[in-house]
C-alpha cells in the first residue's frame, strides 16, 4: 500500500485514534466488545534490561538542509549566509541559529554522513521509517511498530506507540494492533479521551450495551475472524484508556506554565513536552513531526524560522529529560528523509539531496559530544565513514537491546528482518 500525499509532498497515513475507534462502522458494546473482552493485545515479552527503554523520534519533515543546521560550511560558495558557532564540546560547531542546542552538546552526538539513493519524499520517508525501500504490494512495518512488537507495552492502559503531528503509519505486515495512536494537535492532545459534555459515564455505558445487543448476530457469524478481533482489541484498548488514570499523561494542563513556555508555545514545542510526558508514563515510541523543511525556495529565511522553533523545543526536551532522570533511558533521534543540495538554486532554495545529510542523537545508549562521519568541504559527498540508513537503525536497535537481524513474520509466513541489511553494524563510535 502506498501512502497519500500531503501538502508538503510527504507521506500521510490514516491514524488509529479513539474517535475512529468509537465512530467506525463496527458497533461495540461495553459489556462485550464483539464478545472478545478476553482477547487483549498480545506483545512480545521485553528482552534483557537495556540502556534505552523508550524512543523519541523528532521528524524534520520535508528534507532538512544539513549545511544550514548540523554541518555548516561557512566561507565556501555553497555554504550560504549562516555562520557556525561553537558548542559545549570543543571542535564541534553547528549553525548560528541553534544556540540553545549548542549549549547541550555534552548530551548530543551527530552523524554527518547519512546517505541513501532515495531522493523522493515518499520513498525516502518510507526508507527512514521502515528501513526498507518500498516494494509494490507489501507494506513494511515502521520502526515504531517494530519496537512495540519487540519490546512490548509497559502500561496496559496506554498505547505503546504514539505519533504527534502529520505523519502516521500503518503497522504493515505486523497488523493493526501495532499501529500508532495518532494525536493531530499537540495543543489539545486529550481531545476525545473523555465523555462529551452531554454524556455521563452511565449514559455512555448504556449506549455501548445497546450497540453490543444490536451486534449480537454479527458477532456470532464472524467469531474467530482476525480482522474482527483486531477491531475489538482497539475498542477495548480505547475504552480502558478512557477509564484509566494513565490517560493524564496526555494532559498538558498539568504542567507548570513555566515548563510549557520553556518548550515554546508552538505546535512542535508542545509536542516535545507531550513526548516527555508520554515516555515518563513508559510509552515505548513517540514521534513528533516538525514540517516545512522542503525549502526549494526562500531556504534561508525559512530555515532561520524553523531553527528557532527546533532549537527551543529540542534543547528543552534534552534538559527536561535530564532533570526528570529520563535521558539515560530515552533515546532521542532527530532526522529527516534526506538533506538539501549544496548548490543554491535561482529561488534562493536548495533541492532534494540524499547523497549526504545529518542526524542528531542523544540519550539512552548514546555517548554525547561526538561526531561520526564527515562530508566534503562543500557538503557534496560523504568524505569519511558513510552511514547508510541500515546502520542508523542498527544503532537504535543496539541501544534498545533488539537484535537487528532478528526475524518477524508476515501473515503469509514470510520472514522479515528488523533491519533489511543483515550486515548493518551499529555506529559504535557513538555508543556508551
Layout of helices and strands, plus pairs?
Layout: E1 4-5, E2 11-12, H1 18-23, E3 54-61, E4 84-86, E5 93-95, H2 99-103, E6 108-115, H3 121-130, H4 143-151, E7 161-164, E8 181-183, H5 201-214, H6 216-222, H7 226-243, H8 257-263, H9 267-280, E9 285-291, H10 299-323, E10 330-335, E11 339-340, E12 352-353, E13 357-363, E14 371-372, E15 374-375, E16 382-384, E17 387-388, H11 389-400, E18 407-409, E19 415-417
Parallel strand pairs: 3-9, 3-10, 6-14, 6-17, 7-8, 7-9
Antiparallel strand pairs: 1-2, 4-5, 6-13, 10-13, 11-12, 15-16, 18-19
Helix pairs in contact: 8-9, 9-10
- Number of self-contained structural domains: 1
Q: First CA to last CA: what distance?
A: 38 Å
User: Helical element count?
Assistant: 11
Q: What class would the helix/strand composition place it in?
A: alpha/beta
Indicate the CATH architecture.
Answer: 3-Layer(aba) Sandwich
Secondary-structure element pattern, one letter each: EEHEEEHEHHEEHHHHHEHEEEEEEEEHEE
Question: Mind telling me the CATH superfamily name?
Answer: Alkaline Phosphatase, subunit A
Shape: globular
Largest sheet: 9 strands, mixed
Task: Please estimate the helix content.
Answer: 25-40%
Strand tally: 19
CATH class: Alpha Beta
Q: Please compute the radius of gyration using only Cα atoms.
A: 22 Å
Instruction: Report the CATH topology name.
Output: Alkaline Phosphatase, subunit A
Amino acid at each position: 500500500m502506498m501512502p497519500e500525499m500531503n501538502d508538503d509532498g510527504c507521506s500521510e497515513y490514516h491514524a488509529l485514534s479513539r474517535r475512529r475507534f468509537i465512530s467506525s462502522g463496527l458497533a461495540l458494546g461495553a459489556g462485550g466488545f464483539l464478545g472478545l473482552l478476553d482477547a487483549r493485545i498480545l506483545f512480545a515479552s521485553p528482552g534483557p534490561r537495556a540502556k534505552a527503554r523508550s524512543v523519541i523520534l523528532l521528524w524534520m519533515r520535508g528534507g532538512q538542509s544539513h549545511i544550514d543546521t548540523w554541518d555548516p560550511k561557512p566561507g565556501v560558495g555553497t555554504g550560504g549566509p549562516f555562520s557556525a558557532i561553537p558548542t559545549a564540546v570543543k571542535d564541534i560547531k553547528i549553525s548560528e541559529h541553534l544556540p540553545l542546542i549548542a549549549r547541550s552538546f555534552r548530551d548530543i552526538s551527530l552523524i554527518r554522513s547519512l546517505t541513501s539513493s532515495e531522493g523522493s519524499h515518499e520513498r525516502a520517508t518510507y526508507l527512514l521509517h521502515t528501513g526498507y525501500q518500498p516494494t509494490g504490494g507489501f507494506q513494511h512495518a515502521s520502526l515504531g511498530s517494530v519496537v512495540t512488537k519487540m519490546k512490548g507495552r509497559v502500561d496496559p492502559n496506554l498505547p505503546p506507540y504514539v505519533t504527534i503531528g502529520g505523519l502516521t503509519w500503518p503497522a504493515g505486515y505486523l497488523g493493526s494492533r501495532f499501529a500508532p495512536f495518532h494525536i493531530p494537535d499537540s495543543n489539545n492532545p486529550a481531545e476525545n479521551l473523555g465523555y462529551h459534555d452531554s454524556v455521563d459515564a452511565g449514559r455512555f455505558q448504556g449506549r455501548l450495551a445497546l450497540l453490543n445487543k444490536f451486534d449480537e448476530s454479527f458477532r456470532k457469524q464472524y467469531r474467530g475472524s482476525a480482522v474482527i478481533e483486531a477491531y475489538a482489541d482497539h475498542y477495548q484498548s480505547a475504552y480502558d484508556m478512557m477509564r484509566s488514570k494513565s490517560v493524564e499523561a496526555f494532559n498538558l494542563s498539568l504542567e507548570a506554565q513555566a515548563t510549557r513556555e520553556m518548550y515554546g508555545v508552538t505546535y512542535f514545542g508542545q509536542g516535545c513536552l507531550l513526548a516527555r510526558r508520554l515516555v515518563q508514563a513508559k510509552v515505548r515510541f513517540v514521534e513528533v513531526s516538525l514540517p516545512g523543511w522542503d525549502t526549494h525556495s526562500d531556504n534561508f529565511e525559512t530555515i532561520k524560522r524553523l531553527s528557532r522553533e527546533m532549537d527551543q523545543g529540542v534543547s528543552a526536551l534534552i534538559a527536561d529529560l535530564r532533570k526528570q532522570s529520563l535521558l539515560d533511558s530515552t533515546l532521542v533521534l532527530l532526522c529527516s528523509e534526506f538533506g538539501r543540495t549544496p548548490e543554491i538554486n535561482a529561488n534562493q532554495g536548495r533541492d532534494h539531496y540524499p547523497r549526504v545529510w545529518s542526524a542528531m542523537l542523544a540519550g539512552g545508549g548514546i555517548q554525547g559530544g561526538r561526531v561520526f562521519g564527515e562530508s566534503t568541504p562543500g557538503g557534496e559527498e560523504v568524505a569519511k565513514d558513510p552511514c547508510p540508513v541500515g546502520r542508523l537503525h542498527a544503532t537504535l536497535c543496539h541501544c534498545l537491546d533488539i537484535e537487528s537481524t532478528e526475524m518477524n513474520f508476515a501473515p503469509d509466513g514470510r520472514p522479515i528482518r528488523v533491519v533489511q541489511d543483515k550486515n548493518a553494524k551499529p555506529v559504535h563510535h557513538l555508543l556508551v
